[in-house]
Design goal:
Blueprint: H1 2-16, H2 20-41, H3 51-61, H4 67-79, H5 86-89, E1 99-102, E2 119-122, E3 126-132, E4 141-143, E5 149-154, E6 163-168, E7 172-177, E8 185-190
Parallel strand pairs: 1-3, 2-8
Antiparallel strand pairs: 3-6, 4-5, 4-7, 7-8
Helix pairs in contact: 1-2, 2-3, 3-4
The structure holds copper (II) ion (CU).
Copper (II) ion (CU) binds at residues 107, 138, 178, 180-181, 184.
Length: 191
């Protein structure tokens, strides 16, 4: 990990500094970093860092090749995965936490125990799971704008620890409540 950072820094240093001594230092660091990569990769693949790459680094230090060519060489190393940048590799799709907790005390009309979150925002196609963390049973009943129960997503009574799932395929704002505790109304917003 630290090794990767070393490899990325030199062109930045070289770019920011106009002083030749700094540039030379940057090249030293880069050549050092490349030889370390070469060392660690040698076991698997002997030709991981081509000679021309080392030459380009050297020539850049001597002012023979341009900064553009030098940066192209870095680009080549990244594209061919000689330099692996972990932050690029780890770009996994964002996992949506599509869970609604019915918290302890949700049954109590005088308490705060709102569904958490009260308005769950998700992309279409997401499966939402309701979890009953309260000490008494609850259910989930989809309701229309006027508060009337509609057959869209309707759970049986959920005891403590029980779960209920529904997949939302279409965009919209969906309301639900618990028929045992109808003052508890929640929203799922699908976009
Ligand atoms: Cu309830």
């Amino acid at each position: 990990m630290a090794l990767h950072a070393n490899i990325i820094n030199p062109p930045i240093i070289a770019h920011m500094s106009m002083k030749r001594s700094s540039k030379a230092m940057a090249i030293l660091v880069l050549v050092f970093a490349i030889s370390m990569v070469s060392l660690s990769i040698n076991v698997a693949s002997a030709q991981a860092v081509p000679e021309w790459v080392k030459n380009t680094a050297l020539w850049y230090g001597e002012g023979i090749v341009s900064e553009g060519e030098f940066l192209n060489m870095i680009k080549f190393l990244i594209e061919n995965e000689v330099i692996v940048i972990d932050s690029i590799k780890e770009q996994a799709p964002q996992v949506v936490d599509a869970q609604v907790v019915i918290p302890n005390g949700n049954f109590d009309v005088t308490g705060a125990g709102f569904y958490s979150p009260l308005n769950l925002e998700i992309p279409a196609g997401t499966t939402v799971t309701w979890v009953n963390d309260d000490s008494v049973p609850h259910n989930i009943q989809s309701i229309d704008a006027s508060g009337k129960v509609i057959q869209l997503f309707n759970s049986p009574p959920l005891n403590t620890g029980d779960r209920f799932e529904h997949t939302f395929e279409e965009e919209g704002v969906y309301k639900y409540y618990c028929s045992f505790h109808p003052w508890r109304v929640g929203l799922v917003t699908v976009s």
